[in-house]
Structure formats: structure tokens, C-alpha cells
């Protein structure tokens, strides 16, 4: 077991009724760190939504070298990227949320709280934009499907 596993919650496929083995090797580079493991299938719960019969493949990490994942304040990584640039051509949970009609619009947005004294650190909003956090919203069409592109007119606290 990797050192990071002692400090975080772990996924246990043996406790899932919807788990299906795949076993194909996976290796993903994150900046200066990387994880490796194997692909699996399962239902995924995101907030109150359970994305059923996942065609999506996810990675069960078995190797997390370095200290980044030991000190991390999270238990896993939820990939929202394009299938075209995913390891193993994996379909993200985001695409399946759209396919299974869990979102009103095929849009997700982030609000990041910059005030450390506040309890809520931020919000990931699926299906649109939570206008309670923004004065002005600028939509940007993506020109290249391999990368996410954004333009900002202003940032506010």
C-alpha cells in the first residue's frame, strides 16, 4: 500500500454491488507527479446524483509516488476533461451526467472563494452557473477540444 493511502479514504471495489472489473493499465501525469493503476467500471455519486451503469471507466490508483498526494487535502481526482485527451480514451463522469440527463445545460462552472476566513472554499456547479457568486458571466466557446480556454473580463471577491 502506498504512503498516501494511509491518510485518505479508499475506494473498495469489493463493497460495491455495481463494480465491474476492467483491469487495463493506466498512467497519468499531473504536473510533476503521476499516478498509475488500472481501469474499472462503477456507478459514481456526485452530490445527490448517482450516475448509473457507468460506461465511464475510472482509475483505481495503486501507485502514487512523491509527497503531493500524501499531503493533499482530497481523496481522489474527478476528471472532467475531454475524452480525446483522456488516458485510454476514457469517458468522464461529466459526459455521462449529460447523457443521462442529470444537468439542465452541458455547462459546468467553478466558484473559488478567496476569503480564507469563510467556511466554504468554493463550488463546482454542474448544469450551468450559480449566479449568486458572479456579477458578470462571460461565456467562451472552446475552439480546440483538447484544451479548455477561458477569457475573463474581471475578477471580484
UniProtKB/TrEMBL annotation:
Keywords: Aspartyl protease, Hydrolase, Protease, Zymogen. PROSITE patterns: PEPTIDASE_A1. Pfam families: Asp. One of its GO terms (molecular function) is aspartic-type endopeptidase activity. Residues 1-157 form the Peptidase A1 domain. GO terms for biological process: proteolysis. It comes from the Eukaryota. Belongs to the peptidase A1 family. This is Peptidase A1 domain-containing protein.
Amino acid at each position: 500500500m502506498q504512503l498516501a493511502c494511509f491518510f485518505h479514504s479508499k475506494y473498495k471495489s469489493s463493497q460495491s454491488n455495481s463494480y465491474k472489473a476492467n483491469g487495463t493499465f493506466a498512467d497519468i501525469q499531473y504536473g510533476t507527479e503521476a499516478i498509475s493503476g488500472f481501469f474499472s467500471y462503477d456507478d459514481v455519486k456526485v452530490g445527490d446524483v448517482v450516475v448509473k451503469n457507468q460506461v465511464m471507466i475510472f482509475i483505481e490508483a495503486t501507485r502514487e509516488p512523491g509527497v503531493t498526494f500524501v499531503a493533499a487535502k482530497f481523496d481522489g481526482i474527478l476528471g472532467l476533461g475531454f475524452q480525446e485527451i483522456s488516458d485510454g480514451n476514457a469517458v468522464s463522469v461529466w459526459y455521462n451526467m449529460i447523457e443521462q440527463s442529470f444537468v439542465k445545460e452541458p455547462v459546468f462552472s467553478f466558484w473559488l472563494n478567496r476569503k480564507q476566513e469563510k467556511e466554504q472554499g468554493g463550488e463546482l456547479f454542474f448544469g450551468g452557473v450559480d449566479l449568486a457568486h458572479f456579477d458578470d458571466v462571460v461565456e467562451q466557446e472552446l475552439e480546440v477540444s483538447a484544451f479548455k480556454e477561458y477569457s475573463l473580463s474581471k475578477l471580484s471577491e
